[in-house]
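Notebook B, p. 112. Complex prediction, attempt 2.
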Amino acid sequence: MTQANVTGGSREILALITTDEKRVKNGKATMFVCKDEEEQKKILQEVAFALNADVVRLSNGTYMVVKA
Amino acid sequence: MRETYISAETMALIVIAIIAGTLARFFTLREDYRQYPSYPNGYLIHLLTGFVAAALGAVAVPALTTKNYVAVTFLSLAIQQFRDIRRIEAQSLEALEKTEFTKRGEAYIDGIAKTFEARNYFSLTVALFTGTGFYIAGFWMASFFMRGMIGILLGGIAFFAIKHFSKGKNIGDIATVEAGKVRIENDQLFVDDVFVSNLVGSEMAQNLLREEGIAVVIRPRSPYYRIALDNYGQRQAIVFEAARALGIKRYSFTRKEFQEGRIVIALVPIIPDIQRMIDVVKKTPLLENVNKIQALMKTQRKRGSCP
């Protein structure tokens, strides 16, 4: 999980978890479309655990799972 | 006395010098407990290499006095051996990096390895001085005991001189360290008013940090010291020391604030003891490779602030 990343190297987006189907566009990261926020939070935690990754909440409500 | 046997005088010189040199290593070994040598076997290894270093220093004196000048070249062999010690220390610490939750970082490892090399020169130099003292005192007095005393005195002076010279500073000398308040705002982690990270999007992470997160704010005493504190390796070393003292349950963050040059370190510890964290951060050594700045070299150490 998150370690102090002092050298400031950049990270990689692993997955995006959203409730809005219209936001799904092509890209490298895997998209998860959920029906509501509750499901979104659940899926998010599961994906983050599985990938051993960190989570960023974007201001539009989409969650971004990034490489630790 | 037959030529093939070593004379009692030479024997006494070598033995006293070796003992003095090994003791020098022993005294310095006790001090760096915070850094690395692991207890039973690490100690043994370094005491023995200190003994070898002392032996080389001790034998150099009789070699010179019997006009065996070429024998001094084995001192270069000693240097080679000590450089190996530095290399091996660095290698073994680098290999351990993968097993630690928080990394020491290359800069810190380099500093530790360098210290180990330097400590062997302690042994060598102290043995050399003790032997020389013993030999020179022989011109005025016959008692081995008195000569030994003078040798040890000279060795002791050398020991304290080098020790004073090689002594490093630590974070507490150049900066103040205070507890900071951890808070979560808009899914982002703040300590006091400093933004630290937005990698805390999940509710679990936020709750963990809100309930158990602790943080310190390091504030440099002068703008000059910002240069040292901004160094990546230095910050990594601070995080490592804090993490090792408290244990890490999950997260560790560090962030530099640009206005005043404050450094923030936040983590979720296993032992939630903020005072201990402040102490450990203060005692983190200032790495040698960030220590070259002129203003830093002139800084007075505070008495008793570091072992």
